[in-house]
Amino acid sequence: MKFGIFYEHQLPRPWGESSEYELLQNSLTQIEMADKLGYDYAWEVEHHFLEEYSHSSAPEVFLGAASQRTENIRLGHGVIQLPTNQPHRVAERVATLDLLSKGRVELGLGEGAGPAELHPFGTRVRTKRDRWEEAVQAIIPMFSNNSWEFHGEFHDFPARNVIPKPYQKPHPPLWVACSNIQTIGQAGAWGMGALGFTFVSPEAAQAWVHKYYNNLLHHQAKLTDYPSNPNIAMVSGFMCAETDEEAYEKAAGWTFFIFALSYYGREGVDAPGEGNLWEEFQKWRYTEKAQAAFNGALIGSPETIRKKLRIFQEAHVDQVILLNQAGKTTHDDICSSLTMFAEEVMPEFHANEPAQAQWKADVLAGEIVLEDLDTQPYDIFSHQNADIVRLTPEQLKAQMARKDAERAAAQTSGSEQQG
After folding, report:
1. Are 194 and 128 part of one and the same domain?
2. Count: domains in the chain
């Protein structure tokens, strides 16, 4: 099993003049330390306008800085929002980062969140999956073709040589965001690595791993021509300390992450520059829902975390991505947590990597046949509750159509009353 670290660049209020500066500098220091400790990946998100929840609107700049302070750790876009970026610029920035890092980039691609992020870019939420798929088809050939043109519904451009070309050939490994758990199965069909969250149970982990590989092997539907990247990674809330009690005391940031995620999903950006998400969080942090969020997270002593990780190792999850930088978790606590984990937990699971690689090779070669397991009972990630709703593209389009119909009916009714 491999291990990554995860950055939203959360920054709860109140803010000082140097708050964002300190946040970015501390994060670079943490990644530099993680590189020396033997962590495998550092993942950075892309979000826009989501105050306190994520101050990470230019991940390519941050990862470029990280590339010059590290030597071995893989640098992951987790993910680039394709509906808010031009395809050419994505290809140019990714290739440049890959050259700067000597081929250490992992390319995660995603759709973006809701109206709060997409509408300012002139993108409708209902079309984000269609835009995402078309952008993948537009971008991937740019990495290797010296002349490429594309004419689609959302993107249209003449033949050009998009430069530079990436260090890795034909391009960095491809991943897709699986904020909706059902996208894990789709990721297998697309032949991309799956970036999801912690599973609710060992049975859920096994069912989704089987679904992913069976789709990759037997129901492949790649969006264009690219090498498969058979990998399943899960993000988990994380805090490692001497005792479980100490770890839970330091891990309030994980529940802030969940609260802020659900808040923006429900409310959007209701008062730009004026809200106080941390203050709103105080009303929720000690509720039953908040406390339940700790259950599936990797929070506790080294021994407690080891026991939880063995479950996912047995399910053949490839990578666990540790979300330590959340809420108001301090720089010192993040560093001590990462150090303790690397020294006392990580070696056991790194030692199992050859066995995992052999299992995967046997599955891909058809020497191990995975049973088709029912994933329907496990259609939720462990951190989710009723406040975090993840719709499929079809459900989203149907919801938008209903809203349009209701709006049109209201306008018709109003016109009739005026008449």
Report:
1. yes
2. 2
